[in-house]
Fold this protein.
Amino acid sequence: MKDATLIIYNANEVCTLDNGGQGLRTGAAMDNLNVIEKGAIALVEDVIVGVGTTEEILDSFRAETQIDGTGTVLMPGFVDPHTHVVFAGSREHEFEMRLRGESYMEIAAAGGGIRSSMRATRAASVTQLIEESIPRLNRMLAWGTTTIEAKSGYGLELETELRQLEAIRELHKQHEIDLVPTFLGAHEIPDEYRDHVDEYVRIVIEEMIPAVVERGLAAYCDVFCEAGVFNIDQSRAILQAAKAAGLKVRLHADEFVDLGGAMLAAELQAISADHLLAISDEGIQAMQEAGVIATLLPGTTFSLGKKEYAPARKMIDAGLPIALATDCNPGSCYTESMQIIIALACTQMRMTPAEAITASTLNAAHALELGDHIGSLSVGKQADIVVFDMPSYRTLPYHFGVNHVRFVIKRGEVITV
Ligand SMILES: [Zn+2]
């Protein structure tokens, strides 16, 4: 008998997602969660040391704390690889304006849009940003998310971009959730540079990227490459400068218009290209060949009330790896729940429950280059686990809009939610 610190046994299903360390899952493999029925898991502190049937685990391990998992489903903690969770203020009035049929331009003219969050965020201290973001991180954790990516991008000037990244760093230290920081100085064109965008691009490249890198505040650089925001040449210039400075790159691509953002992601060997509602067949092929992950954000399409979602089925058939994320932000998609995103991925993009869960765990971990460490319930990986009160993983998107989490384990610590 080997000693463990915690055992959970008798779970209806343990969705391990284990594939023997073969990286992320694509194509038909996305539809396989490697489920162990009447399963169990054993931990030593923050590391998974055993996964198997209840019989196998109870024959091999003993622990002081043994939790009866009858009626539960175990999964790796959700990884949310695209969020704008650190911001000040909120924009519910704008949401209503949209519902009343006002256009983006009318809303922007009335002071709305990203620039509205920019004003509130510029006026906020690091402490205030942290205080406003903690309840959101608490909700993420309560709904089963244990690691996220978090972007700057509501400063659009050096000092505030740095403050936002400092808040992300501080939240990473203070909160149970791990935060991976991304610099998104090119999120929108600030008013003062509307008529000379290239000057703002120069500031991002020559002033912001070096300051962010010097302070070690970001792992990634992102750009909102879209019609009316940053074009392909401007996006390429920023992302090449970021790469030269030692940052990895990811980008908001082909959300509303096919500008060729997916092609650019492939050319730059981005880790991930996100949104992709308007992606071309050529873009799908280029990303697949370059090994770029497609991170899809169906919550945004839903919250904007649009009907056309990203072509997930076509991407899966083409062998493109898919991750899912909330895009949690105060404008186009204000939700912290990966459970809701999974439900939308199934009903609106025709992903199967298993594909959507793979995209929210193992593949999402790879979208943050953490796939060797988290994203599956494999021996040797960090013990980030969600324990759901439900009969099967299929219940998650089927019985939607409610929180199925019984408790969460982060780095081996049981967190009651
Ligand atoms: Zn975004």
Observations:
- The mean pLDDT is 96.
- The CA atoms of residues 47 and 357 lie 22 Å apart.
- DSSP finds 16 helices and 16 strands in the chain.
